[in-house]
Amino acid sequence: MRWRLALIAVVLLAGCGREPDAQRIRATITAMQAALEARDPRGFMRHVSGDFAGNDGQVDRDALHNLLRADVLRNESVGVTLGPIDVDVQGNRASVHVTATVTGGAGGWLPERASIYSITSGWKREGADWRCDNASWEEKL
Fold first, then answer.
1. Cβ-contact 111, 77 below 8 angstroms
2. How far lies 18's CA from each of 13, 14, 15, 38, 134, in Å?
3. pLDDT in tens, 10-57
4. What is the pTM (predicted TM-score) of this model?
5. What single string gives the DSSP state of each residue in 22-47?
6. Residue 109: what pLDDT?
7. Residues 6+ apart with CB under 8 A from 75
8. DSSP letter at 75?
9. Domain with residues 18-139, CATH architecture
10. Which of 80, 87, 102, 101 is closest to 32 using CA atoms?
């Protein structure tokens, strides 16, 4: 009986190996989405590199944080719906493309505002974590 438990434990541990990088990046983006919906810009920013540059250098890390805080203050509720997250990993760098629908409003059943963005971002490995170090976004609707 004891050897069966040991065998099951070994099989389970073998299956719990390190997640592939693309899957880890997708999980990080999902955590960023959840932070925005929880109205937690600081939680979102945990996944943004200190040397972040957005929209061709027009937005640095502090400016991005301020934009997120302003959106949270302006909207009682924030919703983020992501399309498929396309990840291309090349060593310690990755590029990601996703379409995001962002909604906001006073918390009623229907949002008062909505926009669709096409987002392309660059990611780099920082220790064991992946952090976004650049992004460009374009409003599509």
1. yes
2. 11, 10, 9, 28, 25
3. 434 444 445 799 999 999 999 999 999 999 999 999 999 999 999 999
4. 0.84
5. HHHHHHHHHHHHHHHHTT-HHHHHTT
6. 72
7. 104, 105, 106, 113
8. -
9. Roll (3.10)
10. 80
